[in-house]
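Q: Could you write out the predicted structure for this multi-component system? I'm mainly interested in how the pieces pack against one another.
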Amino acid sequence: MSGSSQDRAIDFYFDFSSPYSYIASEWIEALAARHARTVRWHAVLLGALFQPAELRPPVAHPIKREYVMRDFARSARFAGVPYQQPAQFPIPTQNAARVFCWLHGRDPAQAVSWAHAALRGYFARNVPLNDPVALRSLVQEAGVNPDEAEAAWSDPVWKECLKRENDAASALGVFGAPFFRIDGEPFWGHDRQAQMDRWLSMGPY
Amino acid sequence: MSGSSQDRAIDFYFDFSSPYSYIASEWIEALAARHARTVRWHAVLLGALFQPAELRPPVAHPIKREYVMRDFARSARFAGVPYQQPAQFPIPTQNAARVFCWLHGRDPAQAVSWAHAALRGYFARNVPLNDPVALRSLVQEAGVNPDEAEAAWSDPVWKECLKRENDAASALGVFGAPFFRIDGEPFWGHDRQAQMDRWLSMGPY
């Protein structure tokens, strides 16, 4: 692909513990394909993004928590995406994200496959991504060597890679997930799908 | 209207200083009419709702502020609603809200006309609702006696009325604006329009 077609990629920032990221992960490739675009996937850690933005997760606010727990499942049904509220939520997902970084370095398509496997595992089958044993099984199911994956998530190199990715996202104004950038224009939330579709169809508005 | 048709009303909670409330105020009546529903308008003060929910306005978070200032205008253009970012934003709007409470007590339709006049004045014509002189002019334009309106916004009765409305909303789980309740189901944000449309067409999902 030429440089200019790469610039036409949609940047998609997602967090492995974010239900709205999971929902968006199920439609972002189809949306891009309809407009002859590609997607650049970026695993981020919301906890780390929230700090510079002085934000807290929605479930940290009692009244808002009650609403979003309902809205997660309803938004998934609305989007036609299988959803089962995980028993433990939210959970630390940096190991899944480091596996993504490691795979992305050698094969972006394999990294995307892993992202789908992990998000679907956590949000549709209640697989606890914070449990190393469960994570190894999921990695193996996804066709990746679990010993190599565990070595990767324990390796400071991929920890540092994830930190760099987070810092770069934050520097671009990313403060939540899912977050998208199309032609430099920022869109936050799975509920910006229609606005993104219009931008992709008709350009800036 | 019978009791049961009243129960089929859509509860719409809005704040006079909320751009997303303004956008929703421009489509909520048409949405309801398409589904043979009515709308019960509730003026609330976001500042008061945020306290029990331990929330802060999006513009209080530096990185988020940059995004939402852009998203306000883009979302308005997407919805086909005239929008001009007010020079002073956000501003205290309790006087406009008290006028709404006062009018609502004698004629809900007139209160809704006032809500439209005030929201359009602030968000499309840069009329500062926190300035008593500008507020009086806007009231007069809307066909309401400005002396009576000023007496109302200075009267503890309507201050108390607004406080009761806020407390009632908060007790129902309202923590932001626009906020909607349809058949008891909560929807938060102008970006839940499509989900509300589906609920109204097909019932619970």
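A: Regarding packing and overall arrangement: The domain at 3-202 of chain A is CATH 3.40.30.10 (Glutaredoxin).
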